[in-house]
Amino acid sequence: MNLNIIIQVIKDFWRGFKLQYLSSRYDRYGFKDKTAVVLMPSNIVKQNVYLYEHTNIGEHATIRAVKGKFVLKKYSTISFGVTVVCQSHPFFAPGNYPSCPSWKDEIADDVIVEDGCWIGANVTLLPGTHIARGCIVAAGAICTKGTTCPPYSVIAGVPAKFTKFRFSLEDQIRHEKMVVPENERIDSNILRQNYEKFSKS
Questions:
Q1: pTM of the model
Q2: What is the distance between the alpha carbons of residues 12 and 26, in angstroms, rounded to a whole number?
Q3: Domain limits at 138?
């Protein structure tokens, strides 16, 4: 075998190994707790990504947080193939069109996933999305800034909408007491109001 070919194979292997397995050790996240896990390969713009305690991101995630921030709060997990976009183009401004000079003036719009959430496979979280505590986002859902999801709800669809609650009202209150520190608990009156409002819809 030609020596040049062997050298090129070694170089290609090393480059691929660095991109897939070593880059997360050297690139700097906005914040990454030591218990947070990001499975490779993934395509993540890291400087505006904040991963808190016991969070997990599955393989083939794409997180575009160039302008806005992506915040994944504690005990939340993202499945494989999820896309997160934290900025948008000024497409509502008159005179703007794709590829015009001002099209590059992207608008930051943070994406926040609260504690204890499960984001299913191939979900898309668009700019301004806020997923409330304990929610489940069904596989393939597309969440937008207007997505309404009270705590402990299941949302699904395109665009994503409330479908049901994970727990009964009593179990929501019990769950809060079991796993959430007292000073961080959602008031039981708020949980009750949400439950009554969304159970009727």
A1: 0.82
A2: 20
A3: 29-166
